[in-house]
């Protein structure tokens, strides 16, 4: 697959590269696994790029890899057979004083296990050498909690050292449409919805499907349970390092949310965990995996709080692979495939809502949310507010347009307006969004 999008990020990396020719620059690139951080880093615009991957192995073995990369890319011998990263980093900083280049350090957070002293050593050498060096340093990592701690915790050595910090997001909806159109010019809205629902716009998942000819909905769904499907263990691969020994509890909570439980009371009743609020808080504030939301314009202290899992692929993974892990462990993939096809409509309805939420958010000029009343009888899937024009749109989201009851929906909208003072001075429209509007 060709390289899509990321124009803004590439432009920033090119600007930083120019600045690094006068004084060393450090850019930190964060984002979930598979989002495309490595590929973006390699497209920073430099002709000379060293790539250090921090694998989970002895520091001396990593140094052998790094020395080989320096020798191969720069043709410079590294004397003394260094067995510490700090020695190599100092060497690279000095080398760049006369010969500027880019160094990418990938999966940087793994130094926490390899040798935590690396962070303080780097801080010392960076502070001493930055003004003389002309190194363009790009540091990337995919364990969100560790990367945030390393660079944003005031007590950590590398706090405040990054000149730029980027968090890479999934492809936007228009980019997903462009990619699918390139691979399947005759795609349908069902195909686009399946691609969005399965991948969430994560670059590696999109590539995995489309490069293998999975450009139609049925083929995409079939790919989820094919023999040796890389999707099967993906959720565990992404998150087990984040959660450590508590992963079973967190996985169970995420399965509840992915299956449609929205309140802490529902999850507590399902799992029997008394201190459920503390786990939900960590999933939101520390791990950044879920978000809580309230009816649009609700007061901050409102008790009408719901939770959602933000990552589309993880919704699918917890809803099917983890929930039915007994089938996975017994390699009963045909049975799991039957369950996915049986329950796909329920999932795709949720993903259609997510698609439109993201589409409006991408425009950057709307307040986007939902609304429901205290008893939950009246609920509106999507509310979009233009605060400058004092105008709002309330939408019912339906895959099947024939199921839309205009009169009943307008009654819900009237209830929302009556109970929400912010809407009293706005023009509020009511309507339907369906697959045809994607």
Structural class: alpha/beta
Structural Rg:
24 Å
Uncertain ranges:
none
Q: Please give the alpha-carbon distance between the first and last residues.
A: 23 Å
Strand content: 5-15%
Q: What level of helicity do the residues show?
A: 40-55%
Give a quick account of the main beta sheet: strands, pairing sense, barrel closure: 5 strands, parallel
Order of strands across the main sheet: 2-3-4-1-5
Query: Count the strands?
Result: 11
The shape, in one word, is globular
Order of helices and strands: HEHEHHEHHEHEHHHHHHHHEEHHHEEEHE
Mean pLDDT: 95
Number of helical segments with 4 or more residues: 19
Provide a short characterization of the protein structure.
The protein contains 19 helices and eleven strands. It has helices spanning 7-20, 37-42, 59-74, 85-95, 111-114, 117-129, 144-152, 173-183, 189-199, 203-210, 217-223, 234-243, 247-258, 264-271, 276-286, 312-322, 325-329, 333-363, 406-419; strands at residues 25-30, 49-53, 101-106, 135-141, 164-167, 290-293, 306-309, 367-372, 379-386, 391-397, 427-433.
